[in-house]
Amino acid sequence: MRDFFAVKGINWGSLLLAFLLSLSLWVYVTVQDNPVIEGRFEVPIDYMNLPDNLALSDKADTVRVRVAAPTNVMNTLASSDINAYADLSAAGEGQYTAPLRFQLPDNVELVSADSTEVVLVINQLATRQKPVTVRYVSSEPAEGYLALEASLAPNQVVLSGSEDRLNQVEEVFITVDITDMSSNFRANLPVNVVDASGNSLLGFVTPQPALVDVLVPVVTEQPSKVVPVSVTLSGAPAEGYVISRIVVDAPVATIFGAQSALDTVDYAYTSAVNIADA
User: Fold this and answer.
1) How many CB atoms lie within 10 A of CB 100?
2) Hey, what CATH topology would domain 132-220 get?
3) Between vectors from CA 239 to CA 237 and to CA 243, what angle results, nearest 5°?
4) In the beta sheet, which residues pair with residue 84?
């Protein structure tokens, strides 16, 4: 090998030195143009693999971390790019301490975290059914229009969480804004759960379903009248059977029109319901 180098007449030592100097210069320039800097972020904590029969009664929501990254990476880095999580697969009822784990993007290093573990309070899972109410950001539709009572589907949800957190639930509601609307408002809206102070309990209490369909009828503002609903029947029941009672989901209806026309209406009639051989 030495004879080969000698025949070629190449000074390999000088060539290697030149290469190392060039590499050092490139690294120096790169670092100067794009130095590594540090930043602090508030990162939400994800709690994973909690057994189905348990619920969190107390927990930390976030952890502050300090990370280092090249300037061009740090300039676009967001809290959502950093994952902090605790594996609760081995958790049991009572106080439980879980280590925090972190996942970071490429070229980002964790320098420190305000906490490397979380202390949790865990209790048995309980459920409770609650009605859903409507909160209006504004209940004023466009001028000349009137909003009628909202209808929800479903109008109740099942809440799951620890018993102590369920006891704190003050209201379950959706938020509706019908500002300046001149037609019916329809939407599929998220369910909110709050305590008596208005604090959200959604981190501890889970509504099922989490979304509710809402309809707020918006009609022209004119005279109205509430009348009973009368069911129109067609046909006759099977032999040996009689109609003992008729139950209507909405026993009354609100009708609108000129006052002279309203004065002539005593009932709102349904479309014919066929009960032949029922």
Assistant:
1) 19
2) RNA Polymerase Alpha Subunit; Chain A, domain 2 (2.170.120)
3) 40
4) 45, 102
- What is the residue-level pLDDT of the chain in tens, covering all 278 positions? 555 555 455 565 666 666 666 666 555 555 557 899 999 999 999 999 999 999 999 999 999 999 999 999 999 999 999 999 999 999 999 999 999 999 999 999 999 999 999 999 999 999 999 999 999 997 788 888 889 899 999 999 999 999 999 999 999 999 999 998 999 999 999 999 999 999 999 999 999 999 999 999 998 877 888 999 988 888 888 887 888 788 887 888 888 887 888 889 998 888 888 888 76
CA atoms within 13 A on the CB side of 98: 27
Architecture of the domain made up of 36-124: Beta Complex (2.170)
Q: In the structure, how many helices (H) and strands (E) does the chain have? A: 5, 23
pTM over 0.85: no
The first and second tokens of residue 271, run together, are 């479309």
> What six digits make up the tokens of 152?
């929800």
Q: Give the whole-angstrom CA distance, residue 239 versus residue 42.
A: 73
Q: Verify cis geometry, omega within 30 degrees of 0, for the bond prior to 154.
A: yes
